[in-house]
Design brief:
Layout (H helix, E strand, L loop, with lengths): L15 H34 L4 H11 L8 E7 L5 E9 L11 E3 L4 H8 L3 E3 L2 H7 L4 H8 L4 E9 L2 E10 L7 H76 L5 H22 L1
Helix pairs in contact: 1-2, 1-6, 2-6, 4-5, 6-7
Amino acid sequence: MRGEYAVTLPDLPADETGRLGSALLDLAGILAQRQREQCRLDRITQRINAGLMLDEILDNIYHDFRELIPYNRIGFALIEDDGQTVRACWARSDQPAVQLGQGYSAPLASSSLEAIMTSGQPRILNDLESYLGAKPGSEATRMIVGEGLRASLTCPLIANGAPVGFIFFSSIRPHIYEEAHVELFQRIAGHLAVIVEKGRLVSELAAQKEAIERQNGELLRLSEMKNSFVGMAAHDLRNPLSMIQMAVEVLLEIGHDLEAHEQQQILHDVDRQTNYMLDLIE
């Protein structure tokens, strides 16, 4: 009860009391192991939660989960807003090449991933080559096997009852995953799903902010271009307007003293300047 598991008992008799003492010692060992595991899980989730953006959180998972689960590769796939598509959006591996990378997508309906999400339980495939032989149409499995991976642990992420996506742990060693790895993941699965969903939302907001800033920059550029153009147009309109005004004043003041051809010349100039201004405005 006090969290002290190094219990010392006297020599145990070979009766029910002795068997009870032995069981208590075994229980103490199990509880001590569970406490160590929980402390380790708490430290890992705290380090992962220190990330803000989704990529940063997933990088922390890649570095810190080695204390819990063996892997050479971790991938993350997101369920799209339509709920019908799974899209790979992140992967890290210590192998030479990543074939199943960002941008790969596949339908969720009637797939093995849908069954995993529906059950809420991780799935172990300890022989990917045999699985591919049984399901040769699985393009994702074909690419993973092509990367040299031979076992996988697929874990669903469900945050507050809503499906978020999947984390895929993969190893080059076949038959490496055990139910103990599933149990360890499940103990922090809900918390981890909330952390990942937080990172996804923050990343989306950051991307929207960046897009808005780009749009604002473009609007500012267009506004400056418009002001520059209006300024040039106003300058280019001033001269023909002055010439038209001068021609009208001449006609009003001394037009009756001018010869007909002189009046026609002035009117021709007015017409030419007017057409120039109309062309400029258009």
